[in-house]
Predict the structure.
Amino acid sequence: MRADCRQALPPRGEPGCAGRLRSASDAAAASFSSMDLMQPASAQFDGMQFFSTAHRAGAAYEIADQSGVDHIEALDDWEIEVRKGSRIVVARGSAAADYEEARDLGLDAANRGLDMLSGRGLGDFRIVNALDGHVAWWVEGTRPVVRLRSVPTVPVAVAPVTVRGGTPIVRPPAVWHKSPRFFRRAQTTDDLFDAYRNLYLALESLLGTIAPQQTNAAGKPTEGEGVWVRRALTVAGGMVSPSVHAKSGEPAPVDALWNEFYRDRRSALFHAKSSRGHLLPHGSSQRQEVVDSLQPISGLYLSLLDKVAHLKRPGNFLFASGWRLMTESYKDCLRIVATDDPIPFDSSQVRINPSGGRLVTLQTAHSPTHDRPFERSFLGVTAGTRLRLFSRVTRVCATADDAPLTAHIPEGALSLPLVNRLEVLLTLRAENVGLPRTRFAS
């Protein structure tokens, strides 16, 4: 399930395209409050059904490689299905209260099902872009609802500013250090936990240069690991300000960094014993905490790398407030449109349906509850009856002034013939070029 950007979403002119939009919740309530359950509810991805008599909720995710088998794995009240030739895994469960629960329970079930397939020797698969590209479904009262998630991402590069006059600053010559080997691995892996482990090793490598761990004549450590890390962070705190990288307002920033990187992350990511806390790849409920910890550990590492090896990255970036300003007028003008047009996607197209395929425009509104820094979100809603004539949804586009901005292309055949409501949660995201990664496919 791909989300492609047609253009870099430049700042629009004056806001005020025809008509202001109601909130997504108001639009949904006004249009769908009187609709009843359509029997039987029907929706499928590459022939894998979403709903059944026993299954009223679930989610579908993209896997990195095509499945070589048809298989349904039953786990508790869930079924996890893959189809030969498909890059989709479907997880069907008994119930979920809302979108978030269907998404999270479905992801956990899908990963457990793929574990079983791996153990059976039926294939080793990994889910990619789980939170940015998926389909989730649930029953709201008696009404089956399907939501598609799309996050087109815009890379942003800010040109360097040249300042003339004054005395040029001559930096010391850069030297090679082994720590960027680990940092480079962190930037090139597709897995979040692998990235964090390598970021920690990069930092550990630098700390070993700044304040080597104490050893005896045989080279064996005489200083405990945790004790050494705290001491090394204290020494490093004399080279760069630790308060810059710790959470704001921490009275003891070195202790806060030790807790964050060593106690809470390193120990949980480097161990898997059931007797102690650990993080399970892909489906951990603490995944967001690891994501949030990427920026401080990367920032501290790069600051120290500049001091030790005189290696420094460019420093021209867009602030989150700049992205909010650039996308402000889309709150009034952006529309979400679904089509069954069969023509393959081409970013040079000026029409959503170049061969004349059907179009359905969703009631679209800004969804501030889903906004985050560098992310502007919109929720589109339409009655499922409007998709009845679609044999499949080939792409979902965002438009402004009827001009296409982004396209979300389902990886497989997405068919929604009998659902009460289709929702599309679309987020426009900006990503500064040159900053350490914070997003990983798995």
